[in-house]
Design brief:
It is a single chain. This protein is mostly helical. Among the domains are: about 130 residues, no CATH class; about 90 residues. The longest helix is centred in the last third of the chain and has 118 residues. The two termini are about 125 Å apart.
């Protein structure tokens, strides 16, 4: 179960592989609860809080404390190894992490578990490898204690049969519909006996001799009879269930269809004849036109072939023209560069000529000599001025010295 949630480093991971550690950690926590880890581990080490569902899972969405997680991992692993029946010293907080992890993996291999990852994967105290190690050790501890998971037994539920009660309103409605249909069927059949009894003279009726004479005219009676004659007619309603009416309708429709079929058949026959004649005319006209246009078609084909040849020649000529244009552009660029080179050569020649003329001309030398003579004169003048200034400075110092001597003598005398 733990190996299913674990993935090797080089194995292809699916989209849900990143969340496999969460499922392994939840199963591990249930196993630790079965082993009573809160009393056996947390209470002995004065740990106030129990492990969360995803304590040893490495995820950026969960806060981590590597030191605390590694310490809890080592003491939990040591307790599980001891519970599984193998002696293992409880690691201390300041022990070497590499040694502790190597010893835990050695004990895990002793249980027959294949370990294909380095011990450095466990130094962080969290991650899928930490969950894998603790999960396998928890399984070994549960085997040692004799605990095994069983399939859940679901209780069988008995479903009570619901009694279906017919609605009285529906029954009444269906009965009313049946009675209405029967009444309609009865109304369709005329009761001749009843009509005879109604038209026959009843007992106690007035005889012709005893009947009172009418004061009206016979013409007025005829008009009245014609007016009410439509209301005295007996009409029978046909019902949908009468197959005789349906049969008569079918015969009528059949006769109408047969009559229409004969008319349409004759019309379609004439239309077919007209269309066949038109097709024959079109085909004969097409043959005549094709015969008349045969030389033109041949000429068109030959002209089209020549056109294709001319197009190919045009493409070839156009390609050669493009090549010549490129060559012309290169030549023009070469001419431009040669013109620039000739201009530069002319400039260099002019500079050489100017330098030669300046070197052969003595005017600069004369100007240099004049400048040197002027500089010498200025140097002599500066020397004279310097001597005058030094003499004046010496006289001022001597004068100050004599004044100081006179003042000192005057002070001594007084």
């Amino acid at each position: 179960m733990a190996e299913d949630g674990r993935r090797a480093d080089g194995e292809d991971r699916g989209p849900g592989a990143a969340y496999g550690g969460f499922a392994v950690m939840e199963g591990l926590l249930e196993k630790l609860k079965l082993l009573d880890y809160e009393e056996q581990v947390l209470a002995k080490h004065n740990s106030a809080k129990s492990l969360s569902r995803h304590y040893f899972v490495s995820s950026p969405h969960i806060g981590s404390n590597p030191g605390e997680q590694f310490y809890l991992f080592t003491i939990t692993a040591a307790w599980l190894i001891n519970t599984a029946g193998r002696p293992f010293p409880e690691p201390l907080e300041y022990d070497e992490p590499t040694t502790t992890v190597s010893n835990i993996l050695a004990e895990l291999r002793a249980f027959g578990v294949k370990v294909d990852f380095p011990p450095s994967k466990l130094k962080s105290g969290s991650g899928e490898h930490v969950c894998f190690v603790l999960d396998r050790l928890a399984e070994e501890a549960l085997k040692r204690t004799g605990f095994s998971f069983r399939r859940p037994k679901y209780p069988t539920e008995t479903t009570e049969e619901e009694s279906i009660v017919e609605d009285d309103a529906e029954l009444t409605l269906s009965r009313a519909e049946e009675e209405a249909i029967e009444a309609d069927d009865d109304e369709d059949v005329l009761d001749l006996d009843t009509l005879k009894l109604q038209t026959s003279e009843p007992e106690g009726a007035l005889r012709a001799d005893d009947a009172p004479e009418s004061a009206g005219d016979a013409a007025e009676w005829n008009l009245e009879v014609e007016r009410v004659l439509t209301q005295l007619r007996v009409s029978t309603r046909t019902h949908n269930k009468q197959w005789r009416s349906h049969l008569e309708q079918m015969h009528q429709h059949n006769q109408a269809i047969s009559s229409l079929t004969e008319d349409s058949k004759s019309f379609l026959t004439r239309l077919q004849q007209d269309l066949s004649k038109a097709v024959e005319k079109v085909s004969s006209r097409e043959k005549y036109i094709s015969k008349q246009l045969e030389p033109l078609i041949q000429e068109y084909r030959s002209v089209r072939a020549r056109l294709q040849q001319e197009q190919e020649r045009y493409q070839q000529t156009n390609a050669r023209v493009m090549e010549k244009r490129l060559e012309l552009r290169e030549v023009s660029e070469g001419i431009a560069t040669s013109a620039e080179i000739s201009d530069e050569v002319k400039k260099i020649e002019q500079e050489i000529k100017d330098r030669d003329s300046s070197m052969s001309d003595g005017a600069p030398v004369v100007r240099i000599r004049r400048s040197l003579t002027r500089l010498k004169q200025e140097v002599v003048q500066m020397d004279v001025r310097t001597g005058v200034v030094q003499h004046a400075l010496l006289l001022s110092r001597l004068k100050e010295k004599s004044n100081m001597t006179r003042d000192m003598l005057a002070t001594n005398i007084t």
